[in-house]
Design goal:
Elements: E1 6-11, H1 22-31, E2 34-39, H2 48-58, E3 61-70, E4 78-83, H3 90-116, H4 123-130, H5 137-146, H6 153-161, H7 176-185, E5 189-192, H8 202-214, E6 219-224, H9 229-242, E7 245-249, H10 276-290
Parallel strand pairs: 1-2, 2-3, 5-6, 6-7
Antiparallel strand pairs: 3-4, 4-5
């Protein structure tokens, strides 16, 4: 059981590539003693209405969010969290629809590659496992695992679905500036997720974060389930020096996708401190005022 009152501002549901439905995720957050969670599915806001209703039902604050993939040179990842967004934002919803259509085209190409390799996997099977509006590589990995073509999710990504793998197909991503602008237009705070995924040394990371800040980035996910203590301290210091807010999240998907990442275990097995939410709320209020 986690200490009461902690928060987790980076979680996923079946609306993208998580194991738990939005309502089940919020119930689980209640069970482990969290006072608030952000639901940040990839490229969709489809799970937010259900999550917000469950939050009211179970007494857990649900911060409506989204996780956007931004363009950056391979093999790095640049993911930007929108926290405190308006799920009904017209510009955001329109652009997410475009991203999902591009993702659907990519999924068809991945399925073709798998079939050309001689393996019996159809896109329909993958869509059935996904069970929601977003079909992603973890769903392909689950089918490969279920059919015995791989022995683990890790093997599926390392050999076949990850960058450089046999079945890898690159995907359309937003430019970082556009991702940030869309989040702001939706009244949210834009936060760089898991900054180690930039795969840069500390000096180059700082330069990149400065560049993103100059494009409007509000904060850094300094507290993250896969960070070392040194990572956390470095990103807290960087945010302080650059005048940015910080966030904290587990990146929980569920055991099928990330078996060693647990809801609410953000920093050395603990949730993130609830006090982080106030700065995010303040930014969202400012953002909404600026866009009206």
């Amino acid at each position: 059981m986690q200490p009461a009152g902690g928060i987790d501002l980076h979680t996923h549901t079946t609306a993208s590539d998580g194991d738990q439905s939005p309502a089940a995720l919020v119930w689980w957050a209640k069970c482990v003693g969290l006072s608030a969670i952000a639901v940040t599915d990839h490229d969709t806001t489809a799970g937010l209405a259900e999550a917000l209703a469950a939050g009211t039902r179970y007494g857990v604050e649900v911060v409506p969010g989204v996780e956007l993939s931004a363009e950056i040179p391979s093999p790095a990842q640049c993911h930007i969290l929108g926290l405190g967004i308006d799920p009904e934002s017209v510009p955001l919803r329109a652009r997410l629809q475009w991203v999902r259509e591009a993702r659907a085209q990519r999924n068809a190409l991945i399925a073709q590659k798998i079939q050309a390799y001689g393996w019996d996997v159809t896109l329909a099977e993958v869509e059935e496992i996904a069970g929601g509006p977003i079909v992603a590589r973890p769903h392909f990995a689950q089918v490969l695992l279920r059919k015995g073509y791989v022995e683990s999710m890790q093997e599926a990504f390392d050999r076949y679905l990850g960058r450089g793998g046999l079945f890898y197909v690159d995907r359309v991503r937003l430019q970082p500036e556009e991702a940030i602008a869309l989040i702001h237009a939706a009244g949210g705070a834009a936060v760089l997720a898991h900054p180690n995924h930039l795969k840069l040394d500390p000096e180059a990371t700082e330069a990149k974060v400065r560049q993103l800040r100059d494009c409007g980035l509000d904060g850094i996910e300094a507290r993250y389930s896969q960070h070392t203590r040194a990572d956390t301290l470095r990103y807290l210091d960087l945010a302080a020096r650059l005048g940015m807010i910080t966030s904290g999240g587990s990146d929980f998907h569920g055991p099928t996708v990330k078996e060693n990442v647990f809801l609410g275990q953000v920093e050395e097995g603990r949730p993130a401190p609830a006090g982080l939410l106030q700065a995010i709320r303040d930014l969202c209020v400012e953002g909404r005022r600026a866009h009206h």
